[in-house]
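Continuing the batch. This is chain 6 of the set; chains 1 through 5 are on the previous pages. Same settings as before, nothing changed between runs. Recording input and output for traceability.
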Amino acid sequence: MKMTFRWFGEKFDTITPEQIRQISACVGVITTLYDTMPGEVWEVSAIKALKERVERAGLEISGIESVNIHDAIKAATPERDGYIENYIKTLERLGEVGIDLVCYNFMPVFDWTRSDLAKPRPDGSNVLSYDGSLIENMDFEQMLESLESKRGDFLLPGWEPERMARNKELFEIYKGVDEAKLRENLGYFLKAIMPTCEKYNIKMAIHPDDPAWSVFGLPRIVKNHEDLHALVNLAPSPCNGITLCTGSLGSNPDNDIPAIIRSLKGKIHFAHVRNVKYLGYRKFDEAAHLSEDGSLDMYEIMKAFYDIGFEGALRPDHGRMVWNEKSMPGYGLYDRAMGICYLSGLLEAIRKGRGDRRSALYSPAKEKP
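Output for chain 6:
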């Protein structure tokens, strides 16, 4: 497995690649051109500059998260084919510089939802939190105001102001788009891009819906075992696969994460690993990666990845904000660094417990001076 770390780029992240380079076992970053809008073609010069910056720190770009998909593609408006062509051009440019993993999502309007970006914990840290009873009593404008008041100086991925300024227009174009139609639109998109993905061996890894149910009446099609198997069959190809996010799928306690992992052998291209603490119906806090801090069994999850022979990029997902760090909510340095060490320790114990003396971690980037 490749242990990696999400990095938003120098203009947007408080963390540097040099700091990430010092995290034991971490060999690469998952990054993006954060200031590009959905539908834009990525500039070759910008991609190369990003790659050179990461490699200068002795790391690799292990994947892109995300090349965001324009809502015209998701809602199948008349402009979608033009935006698909733009997407293909970006994939070609990524492929030409050797980047072969793209995480994306197909959630309408916004990417994720939380009712609190910094819920205090008794230990003095704070976490992202979701309380469905609060969100069900908000309209979308109130949600925007709540997030805006709590985000500080940081842009929230999936909630960029330029997109959210169009929220009324976006909600309008999804009228009449139910789950069946949204899934059909995803299939249309995947079939269009797969020839390019196969040419460059780019693995497309769809991210589950977060949380794993409909919010504000919008359709959701990547919520559970059945959804995941349906989407990999929309465009049968080695390049069409999954980002297995334990936190997003784990928001619903009915999802058996280890069983889902084992059922998708060969189709998981990327993994986000984090923990959640169930507090009631559609109510949860994010937690430290340690199993005992939340409700997910991280040992069983890592064992499932080992059992299927997963060799892709894995990153610790959202962490607590600890030691008074000021960073993008969920994306501080310290708790995610602890998360990598914890997950690596679990993997070593699993591997050695099976009598496997080989290193389970990919490490060529660590050999660079």
